[in-house]
Design brief:
The structure is a homodimer. The first copy, chain A, is an alpha+beta fold. Chain A folds into two domains: 136 residues, PSTPO5379-like (3-Layer(aba) Sandwich); 108 residues, 2-Layer Sandwich (PSTPO5379-like fold). In chain A, the strands form two sheets. In chain A, strands 1, 2, 3, 4, 5, 10 and 11 form a seven-stranded antiparallel β-sheet that branches. The first copy, chain A, has a four-stranded antiparallel β-sheet with strand order 6-7-9-8. In chain A, helix 3 packs across helix 5. The radius of gyration of chain A is 17 Å and the shape is globular. In chain A, 52% of the residues are buried.
Chain lengths: 265, 265
């Protein structure tokens, strides 16, 4: 822990800070205005099928960048970015289960690994907060709650599984404004996919998320659901993939892209 | 009644048809793609205050056109438009109450009357239906239910009163899509102002609208509320205005403007 360290304000400063390996917490409030990304690293044998999966499921899996096999760099996403060290925490998956959580993957790197960076709701969260919309999960310093739904993703090859959604409780007027704001950012999951009636998408208990931590929905609020970048993790589990590396809970890649680079209007 | 008549498909054809005075019903499904408008006609003495009222309350009162005093034409809204004859039904208000409903206002016309045409949700309803969103009130052939809320408008001079909202029951995913679509049309009330929790805006019973007819909200739907062009009628009533003419229930002015003319993106 390095509590006294200043919060990095640019994508590159955040990566250089995280590369030191001291901080393993959430990147939620880091480098406001810079695009953050979910990470999925797969052997080349799975890469085409996974890219097809992303193309068929653009709301949970908006592709921001794909590396060359074996190359830990993604220069279009960040100057001197090293995908093996620049996230606070990584999950190593074996046969569809979490086998380890580690602060770097230098020892696990292989010449056939391909890195996929997918858009993340932290990006539009910054846009929501900039418009004065308060997000309880951020104020409470916990990862947003996310739920597996009864909505299947469109399969591709060996990849199949449920759509995962993140939930933010919002006052109705803020839910409308948040829909408008997040619509501008299809590269960060875009508009919500559901609101108001969680049981319709197979969510029985808002207090028991599969990912992240529960957050209260007050009487004057409705739950608003966005497609979530944890979907590939549910898919890796459901598909019992032999090997995969992802980001940890709420520990994202921070890029050099600005949020405005993702805005479609 | 002229049941066998073809439904006019352009704004001008609709006006010429309605000018004949045989049809007094809703304009909801007429001339799809053409902008429809709410009508408020006031003596010149009230015109400036009303225009200030509209400027301060743009969601219920988006101004599409204002006539010269005494001139029944609004050439920018329609070729050879005559505001005295081209709506199916008019309401004549005296001292804040409906004194009569008439099919033209030729006998009531005065040299000091100013006509205000305000955007109408029928315009974005066409856009919603074009995207495959079904609207029960249109399928049932009744005027959309509208409710006075506990949200006050911003007063101007002698004009004050509650915000009125129209309600459409929608499946959650359609509510999100409808928010996106209607956001493109601030000239037709724009995005919803509320959804999901009617009691928070002072609506106690969805089965008892102040305007229009009730419509069922099914178990897999949420009520979605848009600012409504009936707001000026509630304001005319609350303000006990000595004299005013408006459109009748769901009987709008149909203009030559295309919906795309109102789209901001």
């Amino acid at each position: 822990m390095n509590v006294a360290a200043p919060i990095p304000t640019t994508g590159r400063a955040a990566r250089l800070y995280l590369r030191q390996g001291h901080y393993r917490g959430t990147t939620a409030a880091m480098a406001p205005g810079y695009v953050q990304g979910n990470l999925v690293i797969l052997p080349r044998d799975f890469a085409l099928e996974f890219l097809q999966f992303c193309q068929r499921n653009p709301k949970p899996c908006p592709v921001l960048g794909v590396s060359e096999p074996g190359d830990p760099r993604l220069p279009k996403l960040g100057q001197d970015l090293d995908i093996r060290t620049d996230l606070p925490l990584y999950r190593v998956w074996r046969n569809g289960r979490i086998a380890a959580e580690v602060s770097d993957i230098l020892d696990l790197w292989q010449a056939d690994l391909v890195s996929f960076v997918l858009g993340c709701s932290f990006s539009f969260d910054h846009a929501l907060m900039a418009e004065g919309i308060r997000l309880r999960y951020i104020e409470e310093g916990t990862p947003a709650p996310a739920f597996a739904t009864n909505i299947p993703t469109t399969p591709a090859g060996r990849f199949h599984g449920p759509l995962v959604v993140s939930m933010r409780p919002l006052k109705p007027a803020d839910a409308i404004r948040a829909t408008q704001i997040s619509s501008r950012f299809p590269g960060a999951h875009g508009a919500p996919i559901h609101l108001g009636l969680p049981q319709l998408i197979g969510i029985k208990d808002l207090d028991r998320p599969e990912f992240g931590c529960p957050v209260e929905v007050k009487e004057d609020e409705i739950p608003v659901f966005w497609a979530c970048g944890a979907t590939p993790q549910a898919v890796v589990a459901t598909s019992a993939l032999p090997f995969c590396i992802t980001h940890g809970a709420a520990t994202m890649l921070i890029t050099d892209l600005r949020l405005s680079d993702l805005a479609i209007f």
